[in-house]
Specification:
heterodimer, A: 231 residues, alpha/beta, Rossmann fold, four-stranded antiparallel sheet, 7 helices, 10 strands, 27% strand, B: 407 residues, alpha+beta, 2 domains, six-stranded mixed beta barrel, two-stranded antiparallel sheet, elongated, binds adenosine-5'-triphosphate, binds magnesium ion
């Protein structure tokens, strides 16, 4: 199976603090196409830092992040914008959407940034919102959607850009149990049916149980890397 | 609609109150600025018109030494030849050939210096329309011997009325002093109080009797058909009459000429100050708009909206905001001008009388050059764009990974 991300000796040390914080220590991992991975670990173990580094939002202090044969750890900041736009899908914990745009426009927006044609944009935005079960909310603004629905729009947006993989930092943290399961169901189905590579961080044991690979970080280092057969 | 425009437009109305206040501030600033400028320009324009039409005319011709030494010997000797030339000149609308003297007047109440202008009534009337400015009496009635017209201020000071007697004393061409009795036929009032306080019109023919055996002409004032074409006309007269000094209005009253440019500059400075104040409001508004949206901007930058686009988005929002204000200010100003421009504004009610002392009218018709408004609009847009740079820079300096964590 194709490798989508390969990290090598990844370290991140924050020095803007009183004592230097080693948020990541020598993390070497490989992610294959179609994997559905949960990054878990106690608070402060480096989950967010890891996702930011492999998502090109943060630079590692040491090590390499190779995506599509390119080491993004050495990439210029200005190039990273375009790299993220074309290769990586993001879902954050909350407030993912532009409040002044409808669900449809929010999903279209990323394709606009990619300079896709208007027709292509509209077709795919509708398709993606359908995938996450929101065909009836196309013209609704985020403020009128529930937290779960907002996260589903964010997933639709992430997928609309046809990324190599999708990163989600605690996507269910702000959701009630039912919405959390619902979102996970959708993510699992997309992973299974569309072969989307998904990497998400979470604290939530119920959510962890859905992942087919679980990587546990402790103090910035990989403690466990387990594979499960599910669904 | 273009998506970026749509986003910017909707972002502006996320906080309608704040945006409306900003738009209203720009509208009010521009409206005030343009209205004030149009008033000043109106005053200047009218002063220009009255100065040219009632006093200076377009061209004046004198003996070369007259300007240095204002005496009657410095006269236009062959004025008849000049008159014939003017009569045959199609570029000239009308003219007046005058005898001007510095003299003394004495009435029962007052004695003082005065400028005496000897005129040929019909010609003077067509040139300066002084006959239209009579507040009392008549324009050189035949019934009186030695009729004169006295300025309103001079008449009030010296308690002269129509029919009053006064004595004028002046030098004749031999240099001897002559005194003669005159009667007030009429009282005139122009927009220039200084002028009205120091000038008396008399009949040229009668003054001629006292100062020489014949009519003396030492000042010729001409109105051309077109003031814009005055320079070639002046050159032609200077060539045709090399022994005389020919001056156009801007040489006679350079202050009038410079005042226009000066007023433009002053108004631009005042408007620049207004814009400067508005710029602070805009910076504040846009900074708030950026700080309120740190998280959202972080997400946008994280998913790949590059700095150029984020920067443009903030610039676009500022531009729309300022253009709305500019449009509002423009409309409000045009509306005000369309009313006041035709109806006029009476400044007398707010103490505008004193303007007359400086030769300005107190009843103003505001006017403004379209180019001035255009210039101003460009200044507003330029200010907005310069102003927007700071909040836009703040926006793109955000670090996406940190901005998305912002509470
Ligand atoms: N910008 C920063 N500056 C300084 N230290 C930081 C910064 N970001 C993270 N850290 C530190 O790095 C360590 C790892 O943080 P990180 O946010 O990656 O943990 P996490 O596993 O995501 O935690 P949580 O489960 O609470 O989200 C922590 O000790 C944190 O305090
Ligand atoms: Mg975290």
């Amino acid at each position: 199976m194709k490798t989508v991300i390969k990290t090598n000796g990844l370290s991140k040390t924050y020095t803007n603090t009183a004592v230097p914080v080693h948020a990541l220590k020598n993390v070497t991992l490989e992610f294959k196409e179609g994997e559905f991975t949960a990054i878990v670990g106690p608070s402060g173990s480096g989950k967010t830092t890891f996702l930011n580094v492999i998502g090109g939002l943060d630079k590692p202090t040491e090590g390499h992040v190779v995506i599509d044969n390119v080491d993004i750890a050495t990439m210029k900041e200005s190039q990273l914008f375009d790299f993220r736009l074309r290769h990586i899908g993001f879902v954050f914990q909350a407030y993912n959407l532009i409040p002044v745009l409808t669900a449809m426009e929010n999903v279209s927006f990323i394709m606009l940034l990619q300079k896709q044609s208007k027709r292509e944009m509209e077709k795919r935005a509708k398709e993606m919102l359908e995938q996450v079960g929101l065909s009836d909310k196309l013209d609704i603004r985020p403020s009128q959607l529930s937290g779960g629905q907002q996260q589903r729009v964010a997933v639709a947006r992430a997928l609309a850009s046809k990324p190599n993989f999708v990163l989600a930092d605690e996507p269910t943290a702000n959701l009630d149990t039912e919405s959390a399961f619902n979102l996970l169901d959708i993510m699992a189905r997309l992973n299974r049916e569309e072969n989307i590579t998904l990497i998400f961080s979470t604290h939530d044991q119920r959510v962890i149980d859905r992942a087919r690979r679980v990587i546990t970080l402790v103090d910035g280092a990989v403690d466990k890397d387990e594979h499960f057969e599910r669904n | 609609m273009n998506m970026m425009l749509k986003i910017s437009w909707r972002n502006i109305w996320r906080n309608p109150k704040r945006s409306l206040v900003m738009v209203a501030a720009i509208t009010a600033g521009l409206w005030g600025g343009i209205s004030a400028a149009s008033l000043v320009f109106g005053l200047l324009e009218q002063r220009f018109q009255t100065s040219i039409e009632q006093h200076i005319s377009h061209l004046q011709i004198h003996h070369p030494d007259y300007l240095r030494d204002h005496v009657v010997e410095h006269r236009v000797e062959d004025w008849k030849a000049l008159q014939e030339y003017i009569d045959n000149d199609r570029a000239i609308k009308t003219y007046s050939m005058r005898t001007t003297l510095n003299g003394m007047f004495s009435s029962a109440h007052l004695t003082g210096g005065v400028h005496i202008i000897g005129v040929e009534p019909e010609h003077e009337a067509s040139t300066t329309r002084i006959n239209d400015n009579l507040t009392d009496g008549s324009y050189f009635s035949d019934a009186l011997r030695n009729p004169v017209l006295v300025g309103k201020q001079l008449a009030e000071k010296s308690k002269l009325q129509v029919g009053s007697r006064l004595v004028l004393t002046f030098q004749d061409t031999e240099g001897d002093l002559v005194s003669a009795a005159f009667r007030v036929a009429g009282i005139f009032q122009t927009a220039n109080k200084q002028f009205d306080e120091s000038h008396i019109y008399a009949l040229r023919s009668e003054l001629g009797h006292y100062i020489d055996s014949e009519v003396v002409v030492n000042e010729v004032a001409l109105l051309a058909m077109d003031i814009e074409q005055i320079n070639p006309v002046r050159e032609r007269y200077a060539e045709a009459f090399p022994g005389l000094t020919v001056r156009s209005w801007d040489e006679i009253a350079p202050d009038l000429y410079y005042m226009q440019g000066m007023a433009n500059l002053m108004m631009m400075i005042i408007l620049a100050i207004i814009l400067f104040a508005l710029a602070f409001g805009l910076v504040n508004t846009m900074l708030m708009a950026v700080f309120e949206r740190i998280r959202e901007l972080g997400v946008l930058m994280a998913i790949g909206m590059n700095k150029k686009r984020v920067f443009s988005m903030i610039m676009l929002e500022t531009s729309i905001l300022s253009l709305l204000g500019a449009a509002g200010g423009l409309l409000a100003s045009l509306f005000t001008l369309s009313i006041l421009g035709s109806r006029g504004l009476d400044l007398a009610a707010v103490g505008g009388d004193s303007l007359n002392e400086f030769g300005f009218p107190s009843f103003v018709y505001p006017t403004i050059e379209p180019s001035f408004i255009l210039m101003l609009m460009l200044m507003v847009v330029a200010t907005a764009l310069i102003t927007a740079v700071y909040p836009a820079l703040k926006a793109i300096r955000l670090h996406p990974a940190e901005a998305v964590k912002e509470e």
